[in-house]
Amino acid sequence: MTGHGKAVRHPLRDAAFARLWISGLLTETGKWVLQLALPLYVLQLTRSALITSVVAMLGLLPSLVVAPVVGALVDRWDQRRFLVLVSVGQAALLPLLLLVDGPGDLWLVYLVTGAEAALTVAFESVKNVTLSTIVAEEQLVSANAAIGLNVSLGRLVGSPLGGLLLSTAGLPHVLAFGSGAFLVAAVLASTIPPSTAVRRGSGAGTRFWRGIGEGLRTLRDVPTLRGTFVCVALLAVAQGMFVVLFLLFVTDLIHGGDAQAGLLRGVQAVGGFAGTATAGLLTRRLGASRLLSVGVLVFGAVSAVTWNLSVASLGLGVHVALFTAAGVPAVWLAAAWLSLIQESAPLSVRGRVMASVLGLSDGLQALGMLAAGVLSGVIGTLPALNVQAALILAAGFLALKLLPGTRTSRTPALRSDGPAPAAGDGGGFVAATRTSLRDEQR
């Protein structure tokens, strides 16, 4: 760990990470173009909100099923080639949607949407494992903050672009943009030099299907991973609730429309720049586990203030400022939990651990969506939003209790290909780690 006064070279100045970052940005942009345009296209095609919601849910649920398999593949295959293969697969699937000619062809939309969701989990898993092998320890949180910023930038650019392309040029141009973005991402990924830290022999001695559950077992047995996942799980449920309740907040509480909703979702990316710029400094002062706690608690507090100030009718400008402010801790907490997972999981099972976290998070986010629909109908929009904020704050307090607060260096055990330590062996393992955690919140 570097001292407080020593400057740390930003990972974006390293060619390998810069290529990975741009590849991730292109993938995020393409993903958000599709996430906005495809449900709108289905709504235009069917005029059914139920069918549209099914398409949206298919963007989450497949990852819950495929994540363990994807993680096992990440741990066995060359990561650079895996990134290329996944990106090419994402590009190749989209032209199939050109065959959709009416409601009778919706099965093809379901198939492509589910497959793209599975490939997205694969890309995120291998990207995060690759990142942990090509940057130095002191750069890890800054690198994750930069990767986290991609989510905000991808949403900021991709969402309006998806709507614009669909409304002005039609679905074929949406699909052409998405495929083009994924193919360029594949080209960039192919230029990332192989990491000498990656050893592929780690999975050879374990039968493939027996090794699939190793990620979940490692999450259970390593205290830092277990504590981090508890925090991430609560954040995922809260995120799912936000997806549903945000539109009700705009329409019912601040009496806005589509333009106001788009503005509030977009300005969080502005705060994300500040979060990215400060994440590395705060990690050197606090340690990644405390950055996670602070980020989640600040994020929860800003959320609670935002929801409850809606009763005061203070005007859109106040909410724009609050949503902008929320972008800062959102990047902190995302960078922190990702770094915690990367550092605490042995390299031999890191892909399976990362895929398990992402897959379970998607499933919990879907659960949050369902809970929000029920709660908003039973107790109303503002009380349901307060439940969402309370979940975030609970995650922050649990992070304070469950995660170590000391800033220590990574030991060689974290780079080994040996088995994950059992629960009884976790003390020394965890004491040697520096803690950290996207995915994007909100």
Would you give an account of this structure?
With 442 residues, the protein is mostly helical. 75% of the residues lie in helices and 0% in strands. The chain starts with 14 loop residues before the first helix and ends in an 11-residue tail after the last helix. The model is unreliable at 1-5, 196-205 and 406-442 (pLDDT under 50).
Topology of this structure?
Layout: H1 15-46, H2 49-58, H3 61-76, H4 79-93, H5 106-134, H6 140-168, H7 171-190, H8 208-211, H9 214-221, H10 223-253, H11 258-286, H12 288-309, H13 316-344, H14 350-379, H15 381-402, H16 426-431
Helix pairs in contact: 1-2, 1-5, 1-6, 1-7, 3-5, 3-14, 4-5, 4-7, 5-14, 6-11, 6-13, 9-10, 9-14, 10-13, 10-14, 10-15, 11-12, 11-13, 12-13, 12-15, 14-15
Defining key terms:
442 residues, mainly alpha, 75% helix
In short:
The protein has helices spanning 15-46, 49-58, 61-76, 79-93, 106-134, 140-168, 171-190, 208-211, 214-221, 223-253, 258-286, 288-309, 316-344, 350-379, 381-402, 426-431. It has 442 residues and is an all-alpha fold.
